[in-house]
Amino acid sequence: MIENIQVHIESYGMTQRLKDMAAITTPDAQTIVVQPFDKGVMDDIRKAIMAANVGINPVPQGNFMRCPVPSLSGERRLELAKRATQMAEEGKVRVRNARRDALEVLKKGNKEKLVTDDELKRSEKEIQTHTDTFTAEIEKNLKAKEADLKG
Question: Looking at residue 80, what is its pLDDT?
């Protein structure tokens, strides 16, 4: 739920995933505990969790943070469904961008006579097939998540 949140560490001037910089445990179904490996980044982690809009407000407690997970009310389910839709759309955009980049490389190779016209056409179809497959997988996962959230 929060392990892949990107945390910008001001003092180091870099960004890392939360799971790479803290131990994340779930002592019960309603609580996530985040214990940073370096206590100096506690505030950066807290800010990143708040900015991620996952509905969790971390509470610092000494050398760790307790993150109460809100119960799944009807409103919360709708909020999570919207977030899932947003993430699915971002995933589809990434797939389309990868397709665009691959096609650009192929067309450049064709222009420079490194790729034949037949190879270009075959590769374009193959890339489109992969694009369709990944887009369908994203849609399938979104539908499953929406069904899961409905009950």
Answer: 84
Is the whole-model pTM more than 0.70? no
pLDDT of residue 66: 93
Place of tokens 């899961």: 148
Pick the CATH number of 74-150 from 3.20.20.140, 3.40.50.300, 1.10.132.20, 1.10.760.10: 1.10.132.20
Domain at 6-68: CATH code: 3.30.1360.40
Q: Please report the DSSP string for 37-102 in residue order.
A: SSGGGHHHHHHHHHHTTSS---EEETTEEEEEPPP--HHHHHHHHHHHHHHHHHHHHHHHHHHHHH
pLDDT over 90 at 70, yes or no: no
Do 48 and 65 form a contact (C-beta atoms < 8 A)? no
Output the six-digit token pair for 51: 């900015």
